[in-house]
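C-alpha cells as discussed.
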C-alpha cells in the first residue's frame, strides 16, 4: 500500500458550502496535486459529529486517501457539525431499541441520503473531479447512509461501510430490512468491514450473506479486536487505517 506523501502536500481543506434540500450544508474538500480529473471519496461521518464540534474535516483519513491520489470530500449532513438543519437528537428522540426509534431513524436516514446525493451532485460540478469515479464511504451511521445512497444512485462507482448498523441491527427490524434491501439491489462493488469487538458482528455478516446469495460483488472483512472496548472497536473505521488500509486501497484500485 502506497503511503508516500506527495511533495508539498497540504492537509488544510477547502471549506465548501453547497445546497441540500433542507438548507445550506458545509463540507471539506481535499485535492492532492497531480493529474486531473481525480477520482474522489465522499467520506460520511457518524452520529457523533455534533453541532459545534471542533473536529470537522477528518484530516486523519483525508491524508491517507490523498496519498493514494484520490480527492476526499467530508460533507456535514443536515443538523450535524457546521451544517444547518434539525439536529439528530431532535429528529430521533426515542430510546435505542424501541419501535419508535426504528421508525424515526429510517425516516431520518432517508433525509440524510438526500444530503449525500446533494454532496455527490456538487462534486460532479467540480472540474477537478471525474464524475464517473466517485465512491461513498463511511463509519457507523455514515456507513449506513453510504450504503443507502449508493443503492439509489447506480452511477456511484463503489461503496465502503465500516460498522454500519452495528448498534441498531438486532433491535430494529425496519432499519435492518432497509439495509438488506439496499445491499441486494445495489449494482456497485461493496466493501464492508468491522472489528471483532464491535457492538454486533451480525450487521456485516448478515449483509455479506445476503450479498452472496444475490450474486453481488463484495469484499467482507472482520478484523481482530481493536482496542479494549466495544466503543473502540466500533470506531475502528476512523482510527484503524493502519490495519484496514491495504484492503481498502486494493478495493478502491479495482473499483474506481
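Sequence:
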Amino acid at each position: 500500500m502506497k503511503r508516500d506523501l506527495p511533495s508539498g502536500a497540504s492537509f488544510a481543506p477547502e471549506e465548501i458550502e453547497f445546497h441540500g434540500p433542507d438548507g445550506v450544508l458545509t463540507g471539506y474538500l481535499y485535492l492532492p496535486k497531480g493529474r486531473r480529473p481525480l477520482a474522489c471519496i465522499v467520506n460520511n461521518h457518524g452520529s457523533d459529529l455534533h453541532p459545534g464540534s471542533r473536529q470537522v474535516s477528518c484530516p486523519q483519513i483525508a491524508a491517507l486517501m490523498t496519498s493514494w491520489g484520490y480527492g476526499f470530500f467530508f460533507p456535514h449532513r443536515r443538523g450535524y457539525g457546521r451544517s444547518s438543519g434539525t439536529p439528530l437528537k431532535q429528529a430521533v428522540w426515542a430510546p435505542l431499541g424501541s419501535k419508535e426509534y426504528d421508525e424515526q431513524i429510517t425516516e431520518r436516514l432517508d433525509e440524510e441520503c438526500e444530503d449525500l446525493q446533494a454532496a455527490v451532485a456538487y462534486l460532479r460540478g467540480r472540474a477537478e473531479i471525474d464524475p464517473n469515479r466517485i465512491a461513498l464511504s463511511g463509519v457507523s451511521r455514515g456507513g449506513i447512509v453510504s450504503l443507502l445512497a449508493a443503492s439509489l444512485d447506480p452511477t456511484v462507482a463503489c461503496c465502503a461501510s465500516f460498522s454500519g448498523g452495528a448498534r441498531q441491527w438486532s433491535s430494529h427490524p425496519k432499519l435492518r430490512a432497509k439495509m438488506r434491501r439496499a445491499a441486494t439491489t445495489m449494482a456497485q462493488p461493496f466493501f464492508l468491514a468491522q472489528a471483532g469487538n464491535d457492538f454486533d458482528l451480525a450487521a456485516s455478516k448478515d449483509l455479506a450473506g445476503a450479498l452472496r446469495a444475490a450474486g453481488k460483488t463484495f469484499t467482507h472483512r472482520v478484523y481482530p479486536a481493536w482496542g479494549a472496548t466495544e466503543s473502540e472497536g466500533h470506531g475502528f473505521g476512523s482510527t484503524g487505517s493502519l490495519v484496514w488500509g491495504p484492503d481498502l486501497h486494493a478495493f478502491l484500485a479495482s473499483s474506481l
